[in-house]
Amino acid sequence: MQPPMSPRAVAAGFVRKGMACHSQGDLKGALAHYTAAIDTCPTLAEAFGNRGSLRQTLGDYRGALDDHDQALRLNPQLADVYNNRGVTRHSLGDHKDALADFQMCLLLKPGHAGAYVNRAAVRCDQGDLLGAIADADQALRIDGQQEYAYVHRGGARLALKDFAGAVADCNAALRVSPRNAVALLLRAHARYHLREVEAGAADYDMAFAIDPDWCFRTLMLQHARTARNAPASVLADCDRHLQESPNDFLARQRRGIVLLFLGRDEEALSDLEEAMRARPQAQGRIQQHIAEIRRFRDCQEAPPPPTGPMSWLDF
User: Is 5 left (phi over 0), alpha (psi -120 to 50) or beta?
Assistant: First the structure.
């Protein structure tokens, strides 16, 4: 007769089951297994670390932070948990502590490409564009397949008005992952500024086809910020584009949306109707923009700004 398994061994079995569920997309099952592991052996740091990572994926940032904290109390040498806690803190807007976590991860594991990628995202948000590029460069020296290193570097280059460089980075990201909606949306923006009218609109269409909810949410937040902070310069830029290319769909849509946020409905609807005629496949999402913008205008609380490379979009 075999001796009974220790609580730690039983808990490790639950962790393995949780990891299997997670890899198969069964997030509810994974959460149940990680929780069972913690209930069985509350000193198993791995169980807290894995559950924290899963909670981050599920959008439970406070729960994720609690789990990461406990994992590191139990074992302060877990480099991956510092990285994951940094991502959670970034999601909560805590840039200072996120950077400290990424730094600790890199002290423990200097070749952690993901920590450089994630630190680049925070530095983008802080406006430290050269720092973001340096981190992305280092991540790519370690692992040239880090798609989001290309994306964050592309976002920083976009902000620095290196539009050709931004396109090159997006191209590289898309070679790694052809369905990366973030890279497509960034490339659409860079192509807009390079006057590559049809190519930019095609990227925009493809991004929405891949992840319509994320694209819509991100662009709504960005349109709101643009309308609040710099409507005159954006409208002037749209006018310049349309003088050169009257059929520039992105410029027409951009101007219409900003005008709608400003309450200039008649002008806005004229632009947006023309955009829909020029690109019928965009009709549904433009109508959704119109409905949501009117709802936002009636809200007292402004929507939060987008983060990471998306903070540099303006259409």
Answer: beta
What is the distance between the alpha carbons of residues 84 and 96, in angstroms, rounded to a whole number? 15
Neighbouring CB atoms inside 10 A of 220's CB total 20
3-class DSSP string for 40-51 = HCCCCHHHHHHH
| pLDDT tens digits for range 83-136 | 999 999 999 999 999 999 999 999 999 999 999 999 999 999 999 999 999 999
Residue of 32, 27, 26, 28 whose CA lies nearest to 47:
32
Ordered alpha helix ranges (H), the chain: 7-23, 27-40, 45-57, 61-74, 79-91, 95-108, 113-126, 129-142, 147-159, 163-176, 181-193, 197-210, 212-229, 231-244, 249-261, 265-278, 283-297
pLDDT band at 268 (very low <50, low <70, confident <90, very high): very high
Cα-Cα end-to-end distance for the chain:
69
- Taking CB atoms within 8 Å and a gap of at least 24, the contacts of 291-300 are 292/216, 292/220, 293/220, 293/223, 293/257, 293/260, 293/261, 294/260, 296/220, 296/224, 296/261, 297/261, 297/263
Using a 10 angstrom Cβ sphere, with 0-12 exposed, 13-18 middle and 19 or more buried, the burial of residue 154 is buried
Q: Cα(233)–Cα(155) distance, rounded to whole angstroms? A: 20
Q: Taking Cα atoms as reference points, which of 195, 193, 214 lies closest to residue 285?
A: 214
* Token pair in block for residue 78: 């877990």
* CA–CA gap between residue 155 and residue 192 (Å, rounded): 14
Q: What type of residue sits at position 184?
A: L
The Cα 174–Cα 4 span in angstroms is 51
Q: Check if the beta carbon of residue 96 is closer than 8 Å to that of residue 122.
A: no
Q: State which amino acid sits at residue 23.
A: S
